[in-house]
Each structure stands twice: as C-alpha cells, then as structure tokens.
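Person: Please work through this fold.
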Amino acid sequence: MSDAGRLKMSELAERSGVSAGTIKHYLREGLLGEGADIVRTSRNMAYYPADYVERIQLIKRLQEERFMPLRVIKDRILERAVEQREGERISAAAVHRRYDIPRNVLDRLAEIGVLTPTARGYDADDVKIIEAIARFRAGGYDERLGFTVFDTLRYRDALEPLVVEEVRTLLERLAGEVEVERAVEIIAAGAEPLRELIGAMHSKLLVAELRRQLVGR
C-alpha cells in the first residue's frame, strides 16, 4: 500500500475478495462514486481509497445474498450519497452566528437564486458565497456605498454563458476519448484551479481597467 494510504488495484482485489475485473466493472457502472478520490499516477497505474474495500464487499453481498441487480444497488448507493451530502449542510442558525450578514440580505440572495438553501441549511458552495460577501462587506462594500445583493447578479449573469460554453467544450473534447469515470475525475480535479484562474484573471483585468479609466479622466 502507498500513496497516502490508498490501494493499488491488486491490493484492492485482495482485501475485498473480489476480482480486479469485477471491480473495474463496478467502476464503469458508477457504483464506487464519481472517482474524484482516485489518484492516477500514469495511464495504467492508479491508487484507490481504502474505504472502497467495504463498499465493494457490500455490493457483492447485495448481489449474492439478496440477488439485487447492479442498477438497484447503484440507486441505493446514490441515495445514500445524497443523504450524506445533505448532512454536510450548515444550518441557517450556524451561518448567522458565524458570519456578520443581516438575515434579510441572506433571504434576498436566496430569493434571487444566488443562494439555494433548503430546510437543512446551506451547502458548501452557498457557504463560500456567504463568506465572500461577508468579506466584501467587512471591506466597505455595503449598502452605505450603494452595494446591494443585486450586484451579485452581474457576476452570475456573466458566468452563466461561460459555464454553458465550458460544459459544451468539455463534452465535445471528452466524449469518446475517455471513460466516464475518468471524465468526471478530470472535471473534479479542474474545479479548484479554475476558481483560481478566474480569480487571478479577474484581478488582472480589474486593475488594468481601473488604470485605463483613471488615466482617461
């Protein structure tokens, strides 16, 4: 075992008692998640999370003892994943305690669709948006200077066509070239660098435009 406690396919097969061929079939069918936790060091070498062992054994038991088809097993696993995701939400009360943002501001952000809270609270992306807005407000970007929640719509409206184009390009370039699991891994791995790229490019363009307009006055 290597790579921060992950397992090679041969080790995964040995510990789970399930053949490598069957495990690869589970991967192709999406039974082991989206694959974001798989670390690929080369075209033919990858390391898998150790907790795959328990999941593989569970799938095999459901097949052999309950005669459940893989489609049904996958649905059960996906349902559990959604429940876990929901369990990761942060309650509205916790958000109010943690961030100095008026309740009516959060309510209005939800009304215009920038935030999408449920009865269980806010998801991870919502919390990142809330944290960013709190930092903006702490720096002076508040209603006293004319900044309101509706300013966030400018960024959402600018990002929506970019996201549509990005997804279209990804699908065109990845379709037929890589397996679904690998495509998901690529997209997941690019999420954080993409945020950094957009942030850095925005900052660079913002400074350049400020200088241009100031010089033009």
Observations:
- The beta strands are 39-42, 45-47.
- The chain is about 65% helix and 5% strand.
- The chain has a mean pLDDT of 81.
